[in-house]
Amino acid sequence: MKVVKKTDEYTIYEKRSGRLAIKDTNKKWVNGDDKVKILVAEKLLEIKLPEPKAEEPEEAAEDGAEAAEGAEESAAAEESAAEEAAE
Questions:
Q1: Total-model pTM
Q2: Residue 22: count of CB within 10 angstroms of its CB
C-alpha cells in the first residue's frame, strides 16, 4: 500500500486494487460512515446521490388515463341517451 495523504489525525493509503484505506492515530482501521466522511472531506471520493424521480409525468399519465376512461363513459352515456331519444 502506498500513502496517499497523511494528516495529524489519520493516514490514507491506496491499496494495489485501487481502493482506499484509512488508519487513525491509534493505528486502527477506519471503516463505514467515518471513512466515507473523511474521503469526501479530502475530495478523494465523490458521492453521487440518486436524483428523485419526477412525479409529474406519472401523475399526468394517471390523469390522462382517468380522463380517457371518463371520456369513454360519457360517450357511452351519450349514445344510450341518443338511442332512447330515437325510440
A1: 0.54
A2: 22
